[in-house]
Structure formats: structure tokens, C-alpha cells
Design goal:
about 120 residues; four-stranded antiparallel beta sheet; about 0% helix
């Protein structure tokens, strides 16, 4: 069983930056896809970004393109989400997830491992 632990959340003003980290408790050769999701109060959990573990292809939802960057450090079993130019609408609980399947990065059902989440709050 792989555990994912997020860190790096916090409160910032609009225009600020945060870097989220997600550390896996163990190496998982079968992991093909890392994803970041977020869920704001009263809203569905949505895919924000994802990265293929082999090759490093990245995916982003339109609302964060040009502002967020997902990256990975395979030696540390860690995936990052650099968030710049943050907006109040980015306020949410952010979750990382891992999947053995390299498809439908935006779908919750693709992922079988989830972290507990880290809160990001952006004030105007």
C-alpha cells in the first residue's frame, strides 16, 4: 500500500506563489501517472495537472495553464506543483494522486492512490 503525503499549502495573497509537494511512502514501479486535483467547498473535485512518470509529458486544466507547473523527482518519489500568480478562485483543498494507468488524467477514477490533501487559500 502506497501512502501519499502532501505539504506546502497555506494562505497567500492574490498574485503570490506556493509550491506543493507530494511524497510517496515507497517506490511504485507501476505508477504511470501522477495527478493534482483540487476541491473547493460545494464543488466537485477537479483535475488540475498531471505528469507521466515515463517521459514527463504534462497536462493542465485550462484555468491554470501558464501559471502552474507540475514536476517530478523520481529519485525522491515526489511530485511537485508550483503555483504562481495565484487567484482567489484557486482556493481549495489540493490532493495528489497516483495511477498505474496513463490515460484520462483528469478523471478521478483513473487514480487508485490519494493523499489526504493540503489547503490552499488565496485572498484578494
Amino acid at each position: 500500500q502506497v501512502q501519499l503525503v502532501e505539504s506546502g499549502g497555506g494562505s497567500v495573497q492574490a498574485g503570490g506563489s506556493l509550491r506543493l509537494s507530494c511524497a510517496a511512502s515507497a517506490y511504485t514501479y507501476s505508477t504511470r501517472l501522477w495527478g493534482w486535483f483540487r476541491q473547493a467547498p460545494g464543488k466537485e473535485r477537479e483535475g488540475v495537472a498531471a505528469i507521466l512518470t515515463r517521459g514527463g509529458t504534462t497536462y493542465y486544466t485550462d484555468s491554470v495553464k501558464g501559471r502552474f507547473t507540475i514536476s517530478q523527482d523520481n529519485a525522491k518519489n515526489t511530485v511537485y506543483l508550483q503555483m504562481n500568480s495565484l487567484k482567489p478562485e484557486d482556493t481549495a483543498m489540493y490532493y495528489c494522486a497516483a495511477s498505474p494507468r496513463a490515460l484520462a488524467w483528469y478523471a478521478r477514477d483513473t487514480y487508485n492512490y490519494w493523499g489526504q490533501g493540503t489547503q490552499v487559500t488565496v485572498s484578494s
